[in-house]
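Quick one: structure for this chain?
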Amino acid sequence: MTAVPSSSRAKVIRTNESRSTSPRCFVPRTALVNRLRAAGTATVVSIAAPAGYGKTTLMSQWAGRDQRPFARMSLAACADDPRALLGCVADALRRVVPLDPAVVESLQSTRKPISSDGLSRLGAAFSEGSEPYVLALDDVGHLRAKQCTEALAVLAEHVPTGSCLALASRHEPPPLVARARARGLLFELGTDDLSFNPREARLLLDAEGIELGQEEELELLRKTEGWAAGLYLAARAFHDGDGSPDFLDSFGGDDRFVADYLRLECLSALRPKELRFLTRSSVLKQFSAPLCDAVLERQDSARVLEALERSRLFLVPLDHRREWFRFNRLFRELLQAELARDEPQVVAELNRRAADWCEENGFLDEAIDHAEAALDRDRVARLVSTAALPSSCGSTANAERWFGRLNDPAILSQHPAAAVLGSLHHALRGRPLVARRWAETAEAAARTVTLPDGSASIEPWLDVLRAARCQNGVEQMRIDAEAALNALPYDSSWVGLALVALGAAQLLGGDGTAADLTFAHASTAAAGVGDAQAQMVALAERSLVAADREDFEAAQRLADDARSVGQEFELQAHATSAIHLAASARAALRRGDRGRAESELAQADLLVPLLTYAIPWFSAQTLLELARVRLALGQLDRGRALLGQADEIIRRSSNLGTPAELATCLEARSAALAESQDCTTSSLTAGELRLLPYLATHLSLSEIGGELSLSRNTIKTHAVAIYRKLGVSSRSAAVARAAEFNLVEDTRPVADRES
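Got it. Here's what it folds into:
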């Protein structure tokens, strides 16, 4: 047989005959290998990912586990030589498939041109294997000649059942992959599949002799995004330093090991224009072609991004339409370091253009970040004045970052809208002194400013803030809320909060009926302007009002509505969620669902530290409602702790009306419970708590059993246990006692139904 042309340096690996030559692998990819072995009817396997994701290692492990004859070869040297490619493929195939020597001779001959007939004969030979086999081709992305990709397409068309053609590439796979996908004959592994999981990262670190805590391991995995080479290079950096876990603080894409690798494997082959596109676009966390066009001042970004994606250059698509992308974190950090070194003078201007585009297209969070990077703090303040409005329902983390950047009285005095929003934010984070300082800055600023909600001055915003902070008593709170509502545009983002404050003032003044109507209006108005927090609070307040007037069906429904709003808009970390959790816990306990009540209380416990005198009426009311449920559950210590926190807020504030009265009532109950621990509900079982609401109805024990799908004897046993635990001897007395703890409605069943 004629030898492969000497111009070809392609490497053929006969793994079936020499499996021991597979490289040693510290991290077994067992799950991926098993997926490859169980690929079913797939005749084409595509493994595509950037450099360093372990594609070659995976194919080696696969070859060692698959029972089929396995031929592997690298195509790195066949990019422009179809004859070299086909000669090497024929040489590899003849080791697993009986090939006609004439076919091999015609493909390896340097004297004759490659004909379509020759390709067809190779394809036919490929399909005639007597047993299933795997032909694995590595570095497929190096193939550039059209005849090379056409030759692979011919092979793909002739893969026999049970066999497969496996293609590994750091570039976009050839068109044959798309055709196989459309026909249901393709099995694909991409970057996400090849990324190391926590267990695999741990194995690599173990192999490198590195011990990190679980949190440090997860942080390293987050930084590297599971990139195998990145994890290994991090291990090298660890050993090169002092071996301290603190190396994570400084490890990034500009680390010399990572930078050297990425420059060699990714950046060295780029033309200067391509490299400039990458480094300048690194100022963007996420990007699209229109955004890149605007920031880089060009018109061909779509074409460039398409080429970059094909090259698998650590570009992560964010949607299936290939419109939005981001860079791998380490790759972006390297590009940013390159930009700062080579073109530091353009960084601020690039960020300014990015802020322009993001603001024009409604991406306010990103616009703020770019304005900050451009060192334009006035613009940051102006943008925050819109992005942090109550209607934004933004994340607490974003707001913390924004207002942290604006903690400068000189800036805030020029932007009182940002000062008002910052004061409210700090108040809701439980920081009364900071909230007061920001409010004072807003009060001292100019009154006539341009406001994003259309208000003619800052005054109605200040009125809402004054009402919410309730620093001068309930009556002034009502006056401030009404003044705000009279001056705010009907569609202002502040309308919902202003109405909630007015309803709270009415409730604190003892007018529950008026408060309920105002809260109903607040819920509707807040939903209309997109203020989910005000909507959730208004619904929770209505639930509590309904429970106080013993309309327990409405209380349950409104508590469920408040919960739904909180979940839909992901408000779980906001202090305002505490009141809907209190209302839900109270409703759950009323229907005998102790488990749900305790679950709601556990979530509320996380928010209790945020309930301070910064917003006294809200904090005191919420703490007292939580204490009410704790005491009803017989949890005296925890209930008293909440009462103590509420008492402190009430003492520090001007007259709060209803909360003070409720606190006095609950403190009396707490004392009574302490005197007679046996008469608490702490020992009631879940089944007994379920029964309690039914004891307050006209239903007989047999009828209750039917409702609960329990026998009359079981119901009677539960009832007797309830009487004993509550220290009573009759059903009506049990209902009266339970009503003291707000467990049931205080209605007495007739005595003749007691039996």
